[in-house]
Amino acid sequence: MSIVIETERLILRDAISEDWEAVHAYSSDPVVVRYSMWGPNNEEETKEFVEQMIEMSREIPRRSYELVVTLKETGELIGGCGLHKAGFNAEIGYAFNPRFWGKGYATESAFALLRMGFGELDIHRISATCRPENEDSSNVMKRLGMKREGRLREHMFFKGEFHDSELYSILRQEF
Fold this sequence. Notes:
Radius of gyration: 15 Å
Helix content: 25-40%
Distance between the termini: 26 Å
Strand content: 35-45%
Largest sheet: 8 strands, mixed
Shape: globular
Oligomer: single chain
CATH topology: Aminopeptidase
Number of domains: 1
Structural class: alpha+beta
Number of helices: 5
């Protein structure tokens, strides 16, 4: 079953192969991925990622919802937002084209995923992480009502070094 989530200004939907170029516009941008364990992507990596998104959408039962985010008014693909379920827990994440930063789209799309997770998917706890220096992402989590649980020290190794993460979460009864 294909997912389409509508918000005030956005449509979150399952990816199609043709989305790769718009996804590549932000996934190849060093500014976008500076705090991520992936990227900057080359074209082949982006095409593979979009195909992985399509495969996730075919999973039965579905555990991963890695969706593209488009502007409702124009249909332009501006980013991506994901929710990955593990039992009664899930993790969310997001990445957007920098042309659309600072407009509340990350918060709006992540809020839609929280609503789906706590509603339709019967999730109890949803978490998210960001690098400590990524204040913009941290602020999105705070606006969602997520609470900072602490710092995971040097728990990830990517791009040649160890990285800390700030851990945030929200419980169903807090949403």
